[in-house]
Amino acid sequence: SPEKQIWHCFGCGKGGDVFTFVMDIEGLEFREALKLLAEKAGVDLPEYHGGVGQKTETKDRGLEILELATKFYEKQLWESERGKVMLAYLHERGLSDESLRTYRLGYAPDGWEHITKFLVGRGFRSEELESCGLSLRGKEGRGFYDRFRDRIMFPIGDILGRIIGYSARVAPGGDETQAKYVDTPETHVYHKSRVLYGLALAKQSIKETGCAILVEGNMDVIALHQAGLTHVVAVSGTALTVEQLGILKRYGKKLALFFDMDAAGQTAAWKSTIAALSMDFIVEAVAISGGKDAADLNQENPEFLRSAVAAAKPAM
């Protein structure tokens, strides 16, 4: 009702004002909903000024830097010669162009100063890039260089889909002596214990099904989403945390664990089960044979993948 400035659902009986609507639909806390609505309306929140004004401005510039960097990496993937090699690899893994664009995958070119020069040329300081996890300081503090080089970039978004960090996979045929994945370190916008990869795209589906599928890797998230299982997320370079479980509980109280069947995957599944049960989640486990992960199964037999998730058994 625009006149009364309230809403009511005759199906479930819920109702309230614009704040409760956004909190319910987006799964946000009041402070987050207030911030989101203020941004949409172009309103400055007084409580964000004064003592914390500098901190808020720093965060806003950090988000601006990371959004611009993501566009740079996307352009490199789709238009550069080396990027097209990465594109072919991702297609071989069964990922469609639509999925790649939905999750905004990109490519960080090989070299020491590509993203650093690009962003400095756009008016940002090298120190700001360092604080966002994009650049590293040279020995003895001399100069800055790119943290991510010759890697496939998986942007990590917050609950609203704003880019806050990256998980970067070593390029196929690249320097395999380096770590397979390099993630953004803890920054003023990225806190890995409170981040779930793919949550912004999955939250509405989790809310509708009452269940979140938790997988180990970014590639698995995209594969399951492509197979029609859109209520899927992954932890970001950490074991499942109380903070992550608290976020998931806003949307549903059921958790389906779809981890690798090797020893490491099953150990992680065990620990995640204990953590989730302690917070009163209903926990299920997805079991598959053959040692293949979700990305492989999506490429070979998406229907089998969907059946495996549907056949999940109680974790106990």
Question: If you had to describe this structure to a student in words, what would you say it looks like?
Answer:
The protein is an alpha+beta fold. 44% of the residues lie in helices and 17% in strands. The chain is built from 13 helices and 14 strands. A six-stranded mixed sheet has the order 9-11-10-12-13-14, sandwiched between helices. A hairpin with a 5-residue loop joins β6 and β7. The longest helix has 27 residues. The model has no long low-confidence stretch (mean pLDDT 88).
Largest sheet: 6 strands, mixed
Which strand order does the major sheet show?
A: 9-11-10-12-13-14
Structural class by sheet pairing and helices: alpha+beta
CA-to-CA gap between the ends? 47 Å
Indicate the low-confidence ranges by residue numbers. none
Beta-strand proportion: 15-25%
Topology as a string of helices (H) and strands (E): EEHHHHHEHHEEEEEEHEHEHEHEHHE
Report helical residue fraction: 40-55%
Assembly context of the chains: single chain
Compute the number of helices: 13
| Overall form | globular
The pLDDT mean sits at: 88
Q: What is the CA-atom radius of gyration, in angstroms?
A: 21 Å
What's the count of strands?
A: 14
List the helices and strands and how they pair.
Layout: E1 7-8, E2 15-16, H1 18-26, H2 30-41, H3 53-79, H4 81-92, H5 97-102, E3 106-108, H6 114-121, H7 126-131, E4 135-137, E5 144-146, E6 151-157, E7 163-170, E8 181-183, E9 196-197, H8 199-209, E10 211-215, H9 218-226, E11 232-235, H10 242-248, E12 254-258, H11 263-277, E13 282-285, H12 294-300, H13 302-310, E14 313-314
Parallel strand pairs: 10-11, 10-12, 12-13
Antiparallel strand pairs: 1-2, 3-6, 4-5, 6-7, 7-8, 9-11, 13-14
Helix pairs in contact: 1-2, 3-4, 9-12, 12-13
